[in-house]
Amino acid sequence: MINKKVQNVEEALRDIKDGMTIMLGGFGLCGIPENSIAELVKRGTTNLTCISNNAGVDDFGLGLLLQKKQIKKMISSYVGENAEFERQMLSGELEVELTPQGTLAEKCRAAQAGIPAFYTPAGYGTEVAEGKEAREFNGKMHILEEAYKADFAIVKAWKGDEAGNLIFKGTARNFNSCMAGAAKITVAEVEELVPAGELDPNQIHIPGIFVKRIFKGEKYEKRIEQRTTRKRN
């Protein structure tokens, strides 16, 4: 069995270069690849096009890359928690492509499955449809959306093995699951890394064939965007 394990995040991201397109898993701050984002900040990689459901918050997640002006273009569905994102978008410093959330997920999944394009009714009649082919199916108009083309997909899982098989935990499954294998190279960072054969095959969410490199992350902060608690009795 092929061993996909690399020693650390530096080795995992060694060939990411300026100007590349990168998918990053996560939903809000849940299930984001914290170690990989920190490494990109440290490396100072610039002119990145980032595909992610959202852009983190001002001082965490992709917000750290935005602070350093390392992102040239952001492809997202929701960006409401990041004031710096808003400032850069309104000032014209950042190119933004807003995409319906289901369409964004399907464009990732289509790339993962090797499907070049698909039709969807989402966005027809809005700015999302501008410049795109439209076609009627069963009396309803649809627009043609192309699968994403990314250089790297960086995902975060709860547990993985050295063959690249991944298990996600709870909501952290989110966009990580459809981004794995949706780029030329998929890097997975995991909280727990075990030898191949130790994971129950029935529990695996993503098979190792979709993963090129895997490493054990460290010191996960796992922030919560909006902490809501009830009063104690």
What keyword list fits this structure?
233 residues; alpha/beta; 8-stranded mixed sheet; 3-stranded antiparallel sheet; 6 helices; 11 strands; globular
Describe the structure.
The chain is globular, with a radius of gyration of 18 Å. The model has no long low-confidence stretch (mean pLDDT 95). It is 20% helix and 25% strand. The strands form two sheets. Strands 1, 2, 3, 4, 8, 9, 10 and 11 form an eight-stranded mixed beta sheet that branches. It has a three-stranded antiparallel beta sheet with strand order 5-7-6. The chain is α/β, with parallel strands linked by helices. Strand 1, helix 2 and strand 2 (48-51) form a beta-alpha-beta unit.
Q: What are the low-pLDDT stretches, counting only 5+ consecutive residues below 50?
A: none
Largest sheet: 8 strands, mixed
Overall spatial form: globular
How confident overall, as mean pLDDT? Answer: 95
In percent terms, what proportion of residues is strand?
A: 25-35%
Radius of gyration, taken over Cα atoms and rounded to an integer in Å: 18 Å
Q: What is the quaternary state of this protein?
A: single chain
Give the helices and strands as they follow along the chain.
HEHEHEHEHEEEEEHEE
N-to-C CA distance = 55 Å
DSSP, total strands: 11
The class by helix and strand makeup works out as: alpha/beta
The count of helical stretches stands at 6
Residues in helices, as a percent range = 10-25%
Organism: Flavobacterium rhizophilum
InterPro entries: 3-oxoacid_CoA-transf_A (IPR012792), CoA_trans_fam_I (IPR004165), CoA_transf_BS (IPR004163), NagB/RpiA_transferase-like (IPR037171)
GO molecular function: transferase activity
Protein name: CoA transferase subunit A
